[in-house]
């Protein structure tokens, strides 16, 4: 019975770490990548707390980039949910999980992945609505057209220029 | 296992080639050459560069902790090659605590580039003292593999060996 449990734990660990290796979030030479699998959030937490805490360090990044690869979103521990909310809100501080500091989890959420296909949380667009005077809207249209930008890009370029 | 070692070796081969190219370009422009770049690899990646370290089955994030000494263009080349290969240089590497008797082992050597890495016992001692929670299970496997030599090293710097025998971490 004990042997069976140990085998199960070993396979679970390999599945979880293999998933993160496949997504480019971890390097683990002893484990082969497993890309097309779904994993339970509770399993990741269990592996993080009993075998390899580094899976907790990259879990928020994976949840934000690949949410559909995870099962059990509704059973997510409040602390982990808080970490995700803080990252989405761009906060610089947040809770520690299993000895992993929030800053480390935030870092991986904001690092481009090797596949370059995912949009980082810090680069994700947010919907905003404003009520502007017609003359301001006209100026916005003209300014954007002059620089071959859409209106959002034009506003961003005005706000973010050095 | 050899694929990760190859990946790391190829990384240094690429840095070396880029340093060579940059030095030649500078010579053609009558600029002084670039002095050799010295890289001392720390952190989790140094375990992946060592046969005994690999026996611990370590998993690593994509950051490279390393003490890097060299001219600015050489350090820039090092950072750029790392980025291209999906790794990130940890700018706070110089703040990593190392045991007084830390040992560095040779990894790669050429006229442009000297690479050494922290030996596994020194690396595990550093992790046990400064980040015991994150490294609890890794250090436990290390104690199983290296026995008394690692226990003595951790105890020498004030680490609590019994902590690494404990069970699961708390969320």
List the helices and strands and how they pair.
The complex is a heterodimer of chains A (162) and B (171).
Chain A (H helix, E strand, L loop, with lengths): L1 H21 L16 E2 H10 L3 H12 L4 E2 L6 H11 L13 H8 L24 H13 L4 H10 L2
Parallel strand pairs in A: 1-2
Helix pairs in contact in A: 2-3, 3-5, 6-7
Chain B lengths: L1 H27 L8 E5 L1 H6 L2 H4 L8 E2 L1 E4 L2 H13 L3 E2 L14 E6 L3 E6 L1 H11 L5 H11 L1 H9 L15
Parallel strand pairs in B: 1-6, 2-4
Antiparallel strand pairs in B: 1-3, 5-6
Mean of pLDDT of chain A:
91
Percent range for helical residues of chain A?
Answer: 40-55%
Number of domains of chain B: 1
- The value of Rg of chain B in angstroms is 18 Å
* End-to-end C-alpha gap of chain A: 64 Å
Helical coverage of chain B, percent range: 40-55%
Structure overview:
- The complex is a heterodimer of chains A (162) and B (171).
- With 162 residues, chain A is mostly helical.
- In chain A, helix 6 packs across helix 7.
- Chain A has two domains: 2-121, no CATH class; 125-162.
- Chain A has a two-stranded parallel sheet.
- Chain A is elongated.
- Helix content of chain A is 52%, strand content 2%.
- Chain B is an alpha/beta fold.
- Chain B has one domain.
- Chain B has a four-stranded mixed sheet. Chain B has a two-stranded parallel ribbon with strand order 2-4.
- In chain B, helix 5 crosses helix 7 (148-156).
- The chains are: A mainly alpha (162), B alpha/beta (171).
- At the A-B interface, helix 2 and helix 3 of A face helix 1, helix 2 and helix 6 of B.
